[in-house]
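Quick illustration, no need to memorize.
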Amino acid sequence: MKRLFTSESVTSGHPDKLCDYISDSILDAYLEQDPLARVAVETVASKGEIYVTGEITSTAMIDIESIVRDVVKEVGYDNEKLDMDYRTCKIIVNLSKQSLDIAMGVDRDYGAGDQGTVYGYATLETKEYMPLPISIAHKLAKRLEEVRKKNIIEYLRPDGKVQVTVEYEESLPIRIDNIILSTQHKEGISLDRIKEDIKGHVIAQVIPKEYLDSNTKYYINPTGRFVIGGPLGDSGLTGRKIIVDTYGGYARHGGGAFSGKDATKVDRSASYMARLIAKNIVANGYAKKCEVSISYAIGIKEPVAVYVDTFSTGIISDESLSQKVQEKFDLTPKGIIDFLDLQKPIYRKTTNYGHFGKEDLAWEKILKLW
């Protein structure tokens, strides 16, 4: 049976990702001075303005406005007529401390900072154990940013989005059916030139030829023009790209965003742990694909539910795997933080092009399980 599956990714200049990057940059700045900082930062970006809000409890002294401007500059926004200018944009900071009611449950027994369910996933489809659609989408978006920053395509601007549709046959990816790529550009560039440059410098450099054929369809800047972009073209918000951040819709998602949150928030830290467990179940040969779910109650240490689903590909039962996981791993918030060393300023490198599949992250390491 054949089926199509689609995933998307975005560049660091996409308005939502700009906000994620600002939130994670603020988090890292606090953790550099105070590893025990409690941070939950939300960022909003709109025309000429960035608004930073949320809750922070920390001994660190941080110049948040400077961090915001540095991020906007790093991403490449320097023109208020096209997107945003890091030098002139208005920055509003409105932060409070973590609620004492929440802090009580976390401080008393290192309980979970919130309730909810998280999911981790892994598959043999790619060498990084990620689904092929999101893997290719991330690589295309990352390459799109690379050719802009290296001036290989000199007329590009920071905002961009990619979508990839893969055709599967009997659960195996066999070809790419279509690619959609929208990239912001300077005024006066013809669509034909953009199409030629994107095909040659981005798509051809990323996608293995065996996945492309004469029937693969390409939609490059399908509206015909993309000059106005960034927060001028569309508002941005932290946490609005949760499917881009995880598995491209290929696995379930509990709904909690990652960026701007310290590791006591289990919707981030436990998602990382669930990925490590799922990846290692697959990498150790216990299954061809695996999804791990972990559920928490606010203020309570131990998870209220843990389950492993191998989609009938496991060599032992899912129930046995679930039991083995709980015996081997400390899934309390403190256990996860200690195991993955999550009180260090590591979060800026997670923000863009997925929180999973990057070899240098602790939750991507392959371990010997049993």
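The chain has a mean pLDDT of 95.
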